[in-house]
Amino acid sequence: MGEVLYRVVPDFYEEVAEALEKLYGIEAEALQLPRILGFGTWVGGDMDGNPDVNGKTIRETLDRQNRVILSAYFEECQTLAQELSQSASRVSISAGLAKRIEHYNTLVPGSRSITPARHDRMPYRVFLAQCGTRLRNSLEGRPNGYEHAQEFEGDIRLIADSLRANKGWNAGHHSVQRLLRRVQTFGFHMATLDVRQHTSVHHQVLAQGLGDPRWLERTAQQRAELLSGALARDQGPRMELDPQGRRSRGVFEAMVQARHRYGPDAIGYYVVSGVQGIDDVLAVLLLARWAEAWDKRSGEAAVDVAPMFECLDTLERGADLMRQLLADPTYQRHLAARLGRQGVVLGHADISKEGGICNARVAIYHAQAALNEALKGVVAHPVIMHARGGSIALGGGRIDTLVRAAPAGATNPVLRITEQGQVVNQSYGLRPIAMRTLERAFSALALSVGQARRGALVAVAPVHEACAATLAQASAAAYRRLVVGEPDFQDYFRQVTPIDVIERMQIGSRAAYRSAATTIDSVRAVPWVFAWIQSRHLLPGWFGAGHGLGAAIEAHGLAAVQSAYTQWQFLRTLIDDIEAMLARADLEIAFAYEELVDEPLHRHFDAIRTEYETARQHVLAVKGYAALLDGEPQLQRSIQLRNPYVDPMNLMQVDLLRRWRATGREDRDLFEALLASISGIAQGLQSTG
Fold this sequence. Notes:
Shape: globular
Structural class: mainly alpha
Oligomer: single chain
């Protein structure tokens, strides 16, 4: 994937420049486009629920990324050297480039042995060999390497400027510009590493470091006051930190070292999950102070903190919590020192698991609008990030539809979203597909921001919002009535799906459950969805929609719901996604898994089948179709052709589960066969959750 994006980035900028040239008559080559794209990752920095991630993994991850990107630059310099064969006897070079070549003859004298003697009169080749030597020195940790990406970018820009000034527009300038775009995008870090930790870990460290055994029992307000005082006094730990505390301090130390070594963009936000109050954010600042991770000029913590709202309760309180945080004098000083950079993360996955897809989408929609209002005019550089899963049930889907479905005026010029699992390969695995993904996202964002600035946004009709509110409330009630309200539904879940296999698989960065209890409350969102996909129920992607749409139609009328669907992008996206999930589900195959279920639990399948049929009928009524996906014949045809090839694997999986469970889940050969069936079904359905 990284190799594909490395190749695609310059193509993307060239398409944008060509479009501007076509629209405004400005020569594409003359345009100086700002940096539009950036890439990030949580891999190696996501500590939430993963004790193996720490400061060491942060350093190792960025070291690996640095090696990959420096190697790519080195290879491209060699390729450029073959292309830029201009002779100094025929073409002049700029004085700045000539001076830099002479300087490098002294700085990296070994580079002269790399180029043959006949290249001595080919200054661009000589200079690119010198640049390559400095890159290799950086890669191998030897003296006279590049200290940061800006140095390397400056050298490549010297080549571009020299070519422009000396008849080189058609003699390699285009290729040099492509390298410049890559350096501006990937730097020496390749992808910005976001760091994440759960707030409970922070408070455990603080309780120990402050020598306060009652710390965890204190109210959020009490902790916030104590933290503000400790930050004002620059109070260090009173007690020696235990191994967990030292690991937490080491994370901040690694972040500072990474920024110093690879550049300021090497580390992104410090994401705090499980946030309940402003004390959870202030705790990060004090821990950073303990690690001496502060800005020497301002004296404030050198970390950009982004609270993550990932449950319905904190999502509803998110805007008020941010107002409290931004009004806190201690945090105001910190934010000013960080030049007004403030991020907020919306966690789609757990919210969807908590109340169903319809309720989650509506809740996130309103939270995004409220957070935008809370940050607007107060924060100089606000960013609302969407932490989505791969499946539609966990907030996945095309980026452009996410942007278009956002509340009017709530789309920030900076769009940060997560792409997970198989979605990365599907959306970026091939160059044409990667280009299309980036084009769609940029187009949707540009149009949305442009409409907001022109004041061309259309307010949502009150009746349409009322339809969505009724849909969300009724669907959540139906979803929770089954998933939470039925005491034995967790037994049904464990029997009718292969969750007992999935929890033993070596996939992902975390255990399938948050605690030792194998309950629905403790199962993580991704394995929850993955298990239902395997059994072909796809329950998290549609359950509750039947009751929700029925309640909306009954309360507001079918015509009102149809009007909301056609005129409001948000509701159109939601209903389209539910339709796709209904079409991908196959309850005939799902019924085969009922042989694995105890007799008293069969009633749950009856409830699932009834809800499925109700949802299907209401979706068809709203859209005016005779069959699901009549409006998307390509997807409809794809499902019809693909699913029959997966069906035998499901039937085989049912047999394997029955036999494996009969052995007390001890037979290794059966387990290996089950792993193969899970992999095959996931690939056939192109979904892992």
